[in-house]
Amino acid sequence: MQIIEPHIHMYARTTDDYEAMKQSGYVAVIEPAFWSGTDRSSESSYFDYFRHLLEFEHARAAKYGLYHYSFLGVNAKEARHTAIAFKVIDGLEEYLKHPNCLGVGEIGLDLITPDEEEVFRRQVKIAEKHKLPVIIHSPHTNKRVGVERLIKILLEEKADLKRYVMDHNTEETMGTTLKQPHLMAGITLYPTKVNNERAAALIKEYGAERILINSSADWGKSYPLNVAQAAAQFPALGLKDDAIRKVTFENAHRFFSQSAKFKI
Ligand SMILES: [Zn+2]
Q1: Domain contains 199
Q2: Three-state DSSP class for 214?
Q3: Cα(192) to centroid of ligand 1, in Å?
């Protein structure tokens, strides 16, 4: 079986993880830019990180036969540092042109503040200008309110929703996300988020057509092989092969192929 991991932070993982992913059937990993664990003190710190993802991580993955593509942007947790955030957004387009960058992400809301909304909106405008795919981070608390707010901004900006994935959905938000035509819905298999049983139940309830599953593995207690492990357990949880293929490979392939740079 072939797997695309549509959301993982390899920056925070070891080379052994790349090797294990290759051995478990992964063909490509998608890495959205995120918070580093401490806030960045200048825009140049972001740009160094972007270059690290685009070049170093891409090459590290390639050594193990894996495609690696990045999404770049200012994450919600650092949006309150607006002076830095706006400078990064002003310099973002140059990095988005890189052959290993597919789009903008992960951008979204954390505490649902006006600063976060403004930082999100400015980046949506850039994505719309260049017709780029976008990975959206939905907040962990007040998730439903956050997802509704994010969708409202997308609609106000007349965003083309087929290029957007609303990530980290739960039972609380899946209906709201999929009610929007063409919007893709991510489910994150993470100890503090959704487990395999709940993911399988959501896929059964809503169908597999617009759902992607991911590990979002990072420096937290997380596991980079979660998607492979879920795929192995899904038949016992009542999911058919066809649905499993869609949520672990086909939907991601279709979504990321909206960028001409995605060639796997
Ligand atoms: Zn993430």
Answers
A1: yes
A2: strand
A3: 13
Contact (Cβ atoms closer than 8 angstroms) between residue 72 and residue 94: no
230 CB contacts (<8 Å, ≥6 apart)?
A: 189, 196, 199, 200, 213, 248
Mean pLDDT of 62-86: 97
Query: What pTM was estimated for this model as a whole?
Result: 0.97
Residues, CB-to-ion distance under 5 Å, ligand 1 = 34, 216
Residue 92 lies in a domain: yes
Torsion sign, CA atoms 187, 166, 83, 57: positive
Q: How far is the CA of 157 from the centre of ligand 1 (A)?
A: 24
Phi, psi of 169 (to 5 degrees): -75, 155
Cα 152 to middle of ligand 1, angstroms: 22
Do you know the residue count of the chain?
264
Residue 166 predicted with pLDDT over 90: yes
Ligand 1 mean position, distance from CA 222 (Å) = 11
* CA 246-150-224 angle, 5° bins: 45
Specify the pLDDT at position 24: 98
- What percent of the chain clears pLDDT 90, i.e. is strictly above it? 97
Q: What spacing in Å lies between the alpha carbon of 7 and ligand 1's midpoint?
A: 6
pLDDT in tens, 114-142: 999 999 999 999 999 999 999 999 999 99
Q: Rounded to the nearest whole angstrom, what is the distance from the C-alpha of residue 107 to the centroid of ligand 1?
A: 9
What is the number of structural domains in the chain? Answer: 1
CATH of the domain at 98: 3.20.20.140
Q: Which two tokens stand for residue 47?
A: 């740009």
CA atoms of 93 and 107, how far apart (whole Å)? 15
